[in-house]
Amino acid sequence: MTTTLLPFRSLVVQDRCDRCGAQAYFRAVLIAGDLLFCAHHGREYSAKLSETAVLVEDHSAAINGKPSPAAY
Fold first, then answer.
1. Whole-number Å distance between alpha carbons of 56 and 64
2. Are 39 and 29 within 8 A, CB to CB?
3. Vertex 27 angle, CA 10 and 16, to 5°
4. What is the full DSSP assignment across the chain?
5. Range of the domain at 19
6. I need a surface site. Which of 8, 15, 28, 65 has the fewest CB within 10 A?
7. What pLDDT digit, counting tens, does each position of 21-35 carry?
8. Domains: count for the chain
9. Does residue 49 lie within any of the structural domains?
10. Can you give the pTM of this predicted structure?
């Protein structure tokens, strides 16, 4: 049996937290599938996720990386 890995795609604005629906900045890759979390819930669950997930991606640094249009 061979396993084929799909390429990862970047998180986009349409990706939403599985817990509260806010914009997702964390992705936890599990054997059964992916979980997406906002920065708040990603930090809350990161210790547990790091024990069970194949990969945990933290993109929360992007939150303040680019000002929103409302900042102008």
1. 20
2. no
3. 80
4. ----PPPP----TT-B-TTT-SBP-EEEEETTEEEEE-HHHHHHHHHHHHHH-SEEEE-GGGGGTS--GGG-
5. 14-62
6. 65
7. 999 999 999 999 999
8. 1
9. yes
10. 0.78
